[in-house]
Amino acid sequence: MKTVVIGAGIAGLVTAIRLREAGQDVTLVTKGLGGLQLGQGTLDVFGYNPDRVDSPIAEVEKVAAADPGHPYAAIGADAVRTGVEYMAGLVGGLLEGSVDENILLPTAVGAMRPTSYIQSSMANGACTAGKKLLIAGPEQLKDFYPQLIAGNLARTDLPGGGRVEARSASFSIPARGTEADSSGLQYARALDRPEYRRQFAAAIKPLVRDGETVGLPAVLGLNDLNAWRDLQDLIGAPIFEIPLPPPGVPGMRLNQLLTDLAKEKRVKVILGSPVLGGTAEDGRLVSVTVGSTGHDMVVRADHVVLCAGGFESGSLELDSYGVMSETIFDLPLVGTDIPEPTHGQYWGDPQPMFRVGVKVDSAMRVLDAAGQPVYANLHAAGGILAGAVRWTEKNGEGIALGSAIAATDAILGGI
Ligand SMILES: Cc1cc2nc3c(=O)[nH]c(=O)nc-3n(C[C@H](O)[C@H](O)[C@H](O)COP(=O)(O)OP(=O)(O)OC[C@H]3O[C@@H](n4cnc5c(N)ncnc54)[C@H](O)[C@@H]3O)c2cc1C
After folding, report:
1. How far apart (Å, rounded) are the C-alpha atoms in residues 221 and 184?
2. Where are the alpha helices (DSSP H) in 54-193?
3. Contacts of 137 (CB under 8 A, 6+ apart)
4. Hey, CA dihedral for 389, 395, 401, 402, is it positive or negative?
5. What percent of the chain has pLDDT over 70?
6. Is 222 in the pocket of ligand 1 (CB under 6 A)?
7. C-alpha count within 13 angstroms, C-beta hemisphere, residue 339
């Protein structure tokens, strides 16, 4: 059987890898990189609804039962648990956590963010009352402000009561030569090298007081996943990474591991080419059309999994007349009956348009207005599903991974 997966975000990569592991012929077509690198490199299953969520899987079960319009209603809690654990297994020890309990981690503005799975390099950042933190970063790094982070952390009441003690420090070490303004990626590449790690540790070590845990920007190595452990040994105190605003190094690590795995498993990847549409016969898609230089390419398919994301990746569009559309197959969208798809309050409520997307059944097949599959073999997963504001609810990865499992199970089960 041949499946075409559209999109190379977390949903598309995991779908493609899982189908290949089951022996399917898989072609992944993507117009560009997915959103993994824009995230924090963690797996969010449910963070807020609207209050902070302690047990993400319990919240998935609650929402699945109470809100038929939410993606979790079609996906179900079992697929979410399987998907998140499958993903953690794919990246071999990089991620740790549980869907049963959220961990609270410091952010780049010194807030505390609930998430399910974190990278091991972040684990020492879990905040407990009385914990002594030193937040430190290189002066040359953009987008990391130790004083802001430490100040906000020190004045935040912890859920169980009490506060952390936090202070800040800066040190001077350019990522390259004498560069005065370096990005996180430049530091991460430099910290892949043991000799640079020694210099970096030597700059931090004198700043650390007894009993302190050191919070550093999440740039502690890109390809060397043990770079942070080496740095911790060199500094001689527990350390942890704090993710920076996007694009972020922890997300790049996940993206790199999944992309490498897809190649290793021999997923056929067509990169840099958009899917423009498809051809149907007897209610099934039989091929997709891929735009490429000079001529379009037709790729035959027994199944298609649409993992093309939402508005942020161009899979959904809002035109200047307020009309919303799905840009590849012109699929029916739900949630479009809203008077104003967007509002002008940037810091206000979530934009109403972000709940718009496709509706699916439990096999993740895209449904029409009558509740029937549009095509018997067209499944959808990830950000294109209607009914959630993923970055507000903090459930983007849970939805992507749960729907990837539900779609692949359906295909492998012969649906
Ligand atoms: C800035 C930002 C911050 C976020 N923060 C959070 C957060 O804190 N917590 C959270 O839970 N979620 C967050 N999200 C949402 C989360 O990142 C997404 O829910 C998740 O990445 C969706 O994954 P996906 O695989 O469905 O789609 P994406 O990662 O968007 O990937 C879509 C893929 O489809 C490809 N594509 C699109 N159109 C075509 C086409 N015509 N042909 C071929 N390929 C196509 C794209 O190139 C891309 O590779 C954030 C999103 C953004 C943008």
Report:
1. 10
2. 56-66, 71-75, 77-90, 146-154, 184-191
3. 144, 145, 146, 170, 171, 216, 217
4. negative
5. 100
6. no
7. 0
> Which residues are bridge partners to 212 per DSSP?
none
Which amino acid is located at 107 in the chain? T
Q: Determine the average pLDDT of the residues in 328-353.
A: 88
Question: How far is C-alpha 334 from the geometric centre of its chain's CA atoms?
Answer: 24
| pTM listed for this prediction | 0.97
Tokens 């559309």 -> residue: 325
Ligand 1 centroid distance, CA of 208 (Å): 39
| 126 CA to centre of ligand 1 in angstroms | 27
State the Cα angle at 71 between 66 and 76, rounded to 5°: 70
Q: Is the pLDDT of residue 188 over 90?
A: yes
Q: What is the position in ligand 1's atom list of the atom closest to the CA of 33?
A: 49
Count CA atoms within 13 Å of residue 224 on its CB side. Answer: 19
Tokens matching residue 258: 């999944």
Nearest to 124 by CA among 210, 229, 199, 249: 229
